[in-house]
Design brief:
Blueprint (H helix, E strand, L loop, with lengths): L2 H11 L16 H17 L2 E4 L5 E5 L10 E6 L14 E3 L7 E4 L4 E3 L15 E3 L8 H19 L8 E6 L13 H4 L3 E7 L4 E3 L4 E10 L15 H11 L14 E9 L3 E10 L2 H22 L3 E9 L3 H4 L4 H12 L5 E2 L7 H7 L6 E3 L12 E2 H26 L1
Length: 412
Amino acid sequence: MNNELLQRFLRYTAIDTQSSENSTRQPSTAGQWQLLNLLQEELTAMGIHNSLSKHGYLYAHIPANTDKPCVSIGFVAHVDTSPDVSGKDVKPCVIENYNGGDILLNAERDIWLRTSENPELLKYRGQTIVATDGTTLLGADDKAGVTAIMQAAKTLISNPLIKHGRVCIAFTPDEEVGRGTENFDIEQFDAQYAYTIDGGAVGELEYECFNAASATISICGHNIHPGYAKGRMTNALLVAMEINDMIPAERPDNTEGYEGFYHLTQMDGTVEKATMHYLIRDHSSNEFKLRKQQIFNIIDTINSHYANVATVQITDSYRNMRQFVEPHMEVVDWAKEAMRMASVEPVVVPIRGGTDGAALSAQGVPCPNIFTGGHNFHSRMEYVPLQSIEKATEVILNILQIAQNDTKKRNN
């Protein structure tokens, strides 16, 4: 067991860094500042030049140690954890030399991590599994990524014989609430290529994600005493239900792979007024446009029936990064080769979600996503094999050496 890596990971997970959707500040919570300050202290102690912005973006750079021309490679992870489940007072459960059976996380509450519900656990026999006591998040999303980057940085500083180009590091806040690149300084980051270390199971490599938008539908009903309501009342709540029935039943719970969806995330209201919030997702740009148009068409139909009771506002969130990465497929090839060097078979899959890398890719820095090894993100059943974080660290170091050698070949 790599005790240094384990202690680093547990040190980071001990800090509650849940982000908040209701805050206008960035970072949105004090805990994120706490972890960012700790990371800055550790980088400084390593002798790595760094700076922490007023918006909570921590940038660090390790100079190239080769006199040959070489591209600058960046690595990005987010410090916040999901607001869906508490990340306060994490009680880690460390299972060394896992034997392949069910794992008792909490005897008092009879909480188990069961192989019948998590069959992938069986692949990690003999490894060290890190979970919680089943009452909080673990925070592997994305503190496993933070850990891998920091461990790789320490390895580079401790082993100058590892030749590499300029290394650019960024830790971002508020990724879980969709604000991870809101104030990201692409010039200060200063990477030609980058990778987010924010994926799931060992081997995952992703360079395409959803096109994403959010839709807010507002409905103005007409309330009147129910005893006199015939022909006069328009119940905004019932109109909202009708709208939802008209939206295709393509939801997160019945789609997979490249299939897009509509996701009703919130509905509030009274007879007089109601509001609905949807996420719209699709990998295909054409299908994405059609999905948005479908919402507008439904509102037009409702308004023709109920005399203009509904309005909709649709806001694009991010775009599929594939279109920005494909002209620079060397960044994907380097990651594949780096994984194979680490005895990890790459598994190229589409992200059914978003990533900071989508925004960075759109800004001119091709940025695929690499595994951290975690499972059951955003859940009290979250866990990560320690050896998977080790592999992520190894892949980071391999990418730097592969990119350096590839740059030499291209320049010769």
